Amino acid sequence: MSDASPNSTDRQSGNSKSALTRFFGSRITWPVLGLAVVLLFNAIFIPSFFTLEVRDGQLYGSLIDVLNRGSIGVILAMGMTLVIATGGVDLSVGSVMAISGAIAALILTETQLGMLGIVPCVLFAALAAGLMNGVLVAYLKIQPIIATLILMVSGRGIAKFITGEKIITVGDDSYNFYFDFIGKGHLFGLPFTVTLFVTLFAVTSLFVRMTSLGLFIESVGANETASRASGIHDKGVKIAVYVFAAFCAVIAGLIDASNINAADTMNAGVFTELDAIFAVVVGGTALTGGRFSLTGSLIGAMLLQTLMTTLYTYGVPSDVAPVPKSLVIVAVCLLQSPVFRGQLQRLAGKGGGR
Amino acid sequence: MTSPVLLEIRDLRKGFPGVQALAGANFNVQRGEIHALMGENGAGKSTLIKVLTGVHSRDAGEVRFDGQSIEPRAPVQAEALGISTVFQEVNLIPHLSVAENITLGRQPRRFGFIDWRRVRESAQAAIARLGLSLDINRELCSYSVATQQMIAIARAINLDAKLLILDEPTSSLDEKEVDELFVVMNRLRSQGLGIVFVSHFLEQVYRICDRITVLRGGQTVGEYVTADLPRIDLIAKMLGKEPADIESMEAATAAAHHQDAITLEKGEHNPPVLQVNQYSRQGSIQPFDLSIRKGEVVGLAGLLGSGRTEIARLLFGLDSPSSGSLSVDGVHHSRWTPRRAIEAGIAFCPEDRKVDGVIAELSVRENIVLAMQANRSVVRTLPMKKQLALAQHYIDALQIKTPSTETAVGTLSGGNQQKVLLARWLVMSPKLIILDEPTRGIDVGAKAEIESLVASLRSEGMAVIFISSELDEVVRTCQRVTVLRDQQVVGELTGDDVQENRIMEMIASSHE
Predict the structure, then answer these.
(1) Per the CB < 8 Å rule, is A222 touching B360?
(2) ipTM more than 0.90?
(3) Between B218 and which of A28, A77, B44, B486 could a Cys-Cys bridge form, CB atoms 3.0 to 4.6 Å apart?
(4) CA B364 → CA A11, A260, B424, distances in Å?
């Protein structure tokens, strides 16, 4: 059976535009350029940024650090991309991360089940969180920003309830190899988190483009009523993306908890939902829904992480770092806007004394 | 003494990627005349208006307005020069008052605050200039679409406009409202305004316009005095055909229509594809019965708001009924949704294709395969090759004018969007297709194409429900017509009784 679609992942192809128009028209051009500029800055001012060391067969260095730390951002951005493409937004992913970490820590410290207990429990949590968000948005027609705000606020409370309002530390007595491996293990010479986010990115990209889910998501995001009139199960599509976003959040939560060997419900995943939204927008997916680009979001998330790591390496205090970060975000978003580019061109035209 | 020529466009050119929308268009408008701008889909009417009003910049050509060369870069600049436009869709804010809408963005101020007394005065003056009397303090949305349109005109001319462009102003108005609009237009003409009237209704163009300019393929075919240009010649010039061709085309439809009566009798024994009994929806349509057989075209005729669209939406499951039963091919259905309707072989081209129809952001290909894909499960994706083949097939078959299969549908003209929507359903080979105003907002040529398409679908055995406000179209296309008035089915006409005057009688006679 030859039922596989050839190369359907690249939707920009097949256009008869010139290479240059396609280059500047493509949604991922600007985040890529942004990333290149930040890396160039590092190449000039912090050459050590590119230094890679091999210790015990494993790579170390700032770049590896970016990939490792960026993994949570990328994973959350995958889920956020699909939610935003339907015209929604999910503010609850940070709290779902905290719930996931809390569940894992509780199971490790209180039971002998290990990963066999953690995996089904966090998957169930993801399903419950996603269904709650999805049903509120799709069936009860609550604005996504409000619908998910409910879980954003209450989710942290649920996490605290699970941990009994304290930080649960996963000590040596409750050490679990697999859990430890998620956040701190190495595979193929790289941190395991890299394998994790690359796999998630690849599987998600393939799945949405090989099946018609991607088309349905874009269709619902671009015009909900017309999609319904075409027979698309618009509510089902919406619920699916919120469940997927929650699924990404519990994975991110496990990475975070494994990293710090603890479930810190007050600090786990705080503001990560906003970073994920940033990554998606910087990556070229419009908040109004419709066309989306998972690759763009991946690059967007990497751009943010590279920027943060650069700022820390350069010695910018972590309290101040968000300021230059937001400047870069504004710059990339402006460059993406065709209106702004048009104005720039007009200014350039005038300056040239046309 | 100012010259009588108000607007002079010379050799205007404008290209978009893949399309040369304007290839040397000329257009003149005098003070105190109503000038029709006519042309098929893609003739360049919209582009010409958009260049004139500063929405698009031009590639080449000259625009002289009121004695000087102009090149507006934004609609605001065009308005400041005295060129105002009123579009088909009312671009006003529903929940603001009439006075606020008229003066929005240019409210008179005093000490930096809005001077409400002068706002009302200025709005009142604008309304009075049109000879209207309405309460300027009421919310805009409390008025009918027709009145809102007048208010939009009042807003436009409040800017001391010298040229008023009306782009399809009558397409959502009923006959009486059109009359009201024409009174206003005549009044403005006598005040010395130049008015550009863009419309697909030939009837109206002949009633109100002094002169006609015809565009075709981005070029001006010619400028004519309305009284000297027979209708058949106008259509011929728009289509680029000889008048004789069109007469034979009309003769052909007449002959086909005659044939209908015979085939209809033969089909009498076919079981109905769709049947509804005492179907109703609170507040939008009284209980009605309707059944339609294979190979039959049933028309729904009535004035705007009589319940035509409401019936269509009920039959497709977009709205749920308050009472009654529905069956397809003899199978009774209780929870009727678009998904189930599609599964049962029903298709629906809605009246408002931008809201319920095409998905502007998606490509022509994606729009065409959408319903078929939605009807398969998510994982059973149509192979890309098949998708491209399907899209290309219908682009050729329906002559959809698009640069490629991957072009976003939103960039196509209205008629081509309509064809994409039709293609989406034809891909499904439905048993019944509901067409709600399929020819609205599209030009004569495309209208004829859609009519002949309906005829060919019918001959393939498809059942069609055809809704149109243009009675001649209903009469040409349908073998059976259900007549509606005030959310109620008031009667049915079949065979030789399907005539314009019979339909009108029926709508009128029920007014007691």
Answers:
(1) yes
(2) no
(3) B44
(4) 13, 50, 10
